[in-house]
Please model this.
Amino acid sequence: MAFVAPKETFSGKVFEVTIGTDKAISFGGENVLPFHSFEGTVPHRPVIAYEIQDVPPEDWPETVRSVYEGVSSDPVSWARFCEDKLNAKAIALRLIGTHPDRENKGPEEAKKVVSDVLSAIKVPLIILGSNHVEKDSEVLVAVAEAAKDRNCIIGKAQEGNYKTITAAAMAHNHKLIAMSELDINLSKQLNILITQMGFPKERLITDPMCSALGYGIEYTYSVMERIRLAALTQNDAVMQPPLLGDVGTYVWKVKETQASETELPSWGSLKERSITWEAVTAAAMLVAGAELLIMRHPEAVVAVERFIDELMQ
Amino acid sequence: MALTGVEIFKLLPKTNCKKCGHPTCLAFAMKLAQRQASLDQCPDVSEEAKRILGEASAPPIRPVSFGSGDRTLKMGEEMVLFRHEKKFVNPAAFAVEIKDTESDDRINSVVEDVLSSEIERVGQKLRIDAILINNVSGEASRFEAVVKNVSEKAPNVPLIIATGNPEAAEATLKIVASRRPLLYGANKDNAEQMANIAKTYKVPLGVKADGLEALSSLTEKIKSLGVEDLVIDSGAMKAKDIIEHNTLIRRAALKKNFKPLGYPVINFCQREDKILEALIASLGVMKYSSIVVLSSVEKWKNLSLFTLRQNIYTDPQVPMQVEQKVYKIGEPRPESPLLITTNFSLTYFIVSGEIENSKVPSRLAVMDCEGLSVLTAWAAGKFTAAKIAQFIKESGIENEISHRELIIPGYVAILSGAIEEKLPGWKVTVGPKEANGIPAFLRQRMS
Ligand code: B12
Ligand code: SF4
Model:
């Protein structure tokens, strides 16, 4: 029996998305399953954005908080540090301080932070709200305007607030993250609702909702795989935006990234353990289909970049 | 690819003699196709038909195992490419490499790491599964000494004997064949000799070739020599090649019923950078490796790998669940606190772990919600006030405790009034939202 490689080609393809202006970067565009360059084209590597926030990261565990000591009290110096010292290819600014249960900062303050950060960096910016449905629709509308002409990604639009956020992203020419909760049908429905408002599907990014290793990652993994299969095999256009894995925020709240080695000797060194927890979560998201990741620890980012190197060449 | 009823019918005697207990040969063929009958029920079937039917009904990826006793490692038998279609069957085994050129001290310390690698997570015991001993020295005598030492120090751990030297293979198998190690193995230059050794010592054989074409011809050749329990290595080392080769192997086996590649796969994932090694090993776990070879087994790295494997190999249709009952944590007395949660394994293990951490003896009532987490179960109408009240009443817990207070998860605080209504005489207390708040919460109540 002679071996014939059972290669598969697809009619569908993932949309290619370019963000930023000065140091613009593109991702997506492949017509095959993740890293299957042996049977199609994979024009871009996935992009990893460094996460920063508008308030000091007091809620981040020590291992990752200490990396940004001295810069994280101010979002501008934090962003510069990521761009200059860590060679970030993109930055994700989470406006967590606008959450009503946190500092409850207003849209004006958020706008200022966004403008300041944008004038300090050249790499593309992803602007995230605090994930509070009502507050986000106020805040993101304000910052979309402050960031106009910079080709940012705004997010996240959810079922409860997509109308205002979509309108703002559309008016100011940004890309938009559409987030639903771990269900392929809900994800598809939200993308349809957003495109029905006239928002071009080529400018969308789908967030099927991330989860950390050990805390439901298998759900995200399978939803991503199913979305990607629908995009390729059924050539379903609303399933074709690139996928986001918002990794850091889920990883750095689980016990494995916080418990000390004295408390749990059988888990080994906290530093390596927590960095690996973030890196493995990110690797799983990439293999399932994510083209854009948001991460926190530089050593995890470096390891994942090397992993991508090995997968691409 | 299984045969259809009609295809099977063509191979039967077509006499309708009914000896198989079915009215006609066709009826019997239909039952065979649905795997509701077995071929030996027909006494008159030809040898030729037996051979064809036997081959067609064999699983597309051959089941192969190595090791012995309760630590036997099963591989192969996978039926799908994507885990949402159907549960992945046999979890990838993690093996650590020991080179026979390393010092005895280093070798002993790696064996020690393997022996102490076991941890429990969500009720499963997870560990480094096997040790691969690599004959890097090329010498038979040193290799033999290392194999002997490792096999004595780790008497139950499945072994992989890695040598291309037939002499070294025989020498070591004389010592450890009864443990059914995997002999890795055969290549284009030593295939006959290795196949003979595998046959003599009744061990599975690892087969390595450069690329999938060469690998297919080599497994066919070895099969024709009478060895069928194979584990295959396409030579893929880089992540790009691992994903390509493993995907093509799995597709060829499942979609084309291509037998020469229908075997479990071994991947070598060692890297200088240990975090990168964890990522390459993760790729193996996700993309169809049956054996993932590592260079070291630090506890922090194991934890991520064990967890990923557990996640990828869970049944996508049936969430992992625990039995519905009132669990005792510590040695609770009648006045000890009573908490309630759902029977999703992850939820149960996190919550019971935190109650343990609190050192406050307690009872945890775990309610059957079809394995859903607290909020998912609540949203799906399975963790409602009425159902909770009914469960508490029927559990008989009222006879065991001296108080009438139920602590509920903070995320379902909204249920507290309704539960009190449905459980007259009871007081409902809202606990913290996240389980990691439980120790402080319980301890504070004590003071
Ligand atoms: C994975 C998931 C699913 C999986 C199911 C996984 C499972 N086995 O349960 C799937 C995809 C099937 C699913 C389906 C649905 N889901 Co769902 N799902 C999730 C998700 C992402 C994670 C849930 C999880 O595993 N958590 C981990 C476990 C350990 O958490 P937990 O059980 O709550 O336990 C924690 C605490 O509650 C606390 N705790 C637990 N017990 C106790 C006890 C005491 C005494 C105390 C003090 C504390 C405590 O400790 C634990 C750790 O801190 C959440 C969102 C999220 N990120 O949380 C949504 C979520 C729970 N789902 C939701 C919904 C609405 C649904 C659906 C109804 C909708 C749909 N998509 O179709 C369905 C219903 C399913 C059905 N059968 O009908 C909503 C619930 C909304 C709400 N507030 O009511 C959520 C919150 C998402 C959202 N924001 O919309 N879901
Ligand atoms: S026993 Fe065999 S030959 Fe007889 S009816 Fe059954 S299948 Fe046909």
